[in-house]
Amino acid sequence: MQVQEKLATMYERLDAYFGDLHWWPGETSLEIVVGAILTQNTNWKNVETAIGRLKEAALLDPLMLYRADDSVVAELIRSSGYYNIKTQRLKAFIEFLHNEYAGDLDAMFSEETWTLRKQLLDVRGIGEETADSILLYAGGKPVFVVDAYTRRILERHALIAPGWSYREVQTLFMDRLPRDTRLYNQYHALLVQAGKRFCNKKPLCDGCPIAGVPFA
DNA sequence: CACCAGGCAAGTA
DNA sequence: TACTTGCATGGT
To answer: If exposure means fewest CB atoms within 10 Å of the residue's CB, which of A4, A115, A163, A183 is most exposed?
Structure first.
């Protein structure tokens, strides 16, 4: 079975099983950016609590967040873990947004996609996965997001090996699937859901909709 | 009690 | 370049 065919089959089966997942959970583009930073190596549930607190404090706004004291932000996002470092990361992004795009997210996303990706990677605390999550889910750009679940599932299906770089895994998808935002959005969401349900550290493949896709 | 969760950067060799 | 370590909460 060809790689392209496997990727398509996996998508079809996961999509039929889970249905439309409507990612990213978040209402505004800033909320999605903040969520992308706060969820780094952290359970999403803990992030939801933190975002709820920021909202209550009316800090989920570029200017308000820019002005807020670090100690205040840190306390509000406490539940998301690594709260001191994540405060610095939120601040680093928001300063970048103000310095380069006058605090205007729409202006930021009107930048050419791969140029913006490079700019985001220069921000302290934004790595490849966070940058791509921002581009895809907040900006609606057709960029595939690679995360720990993506790697785990693809390794188990012998589509990649440990040691593949982020860009190699990303290219595997993007060279074989249409450059379609809707597709990349749903595919990544499906991989995360499948990973949580069926492919954790202790894999329980029973019932997994892609258990039948050949492993090698 | 241990282990994990939708990473990243800084330090070391 | 390739590894190691710190960052920290909340759930199982």
So the answer is: A163
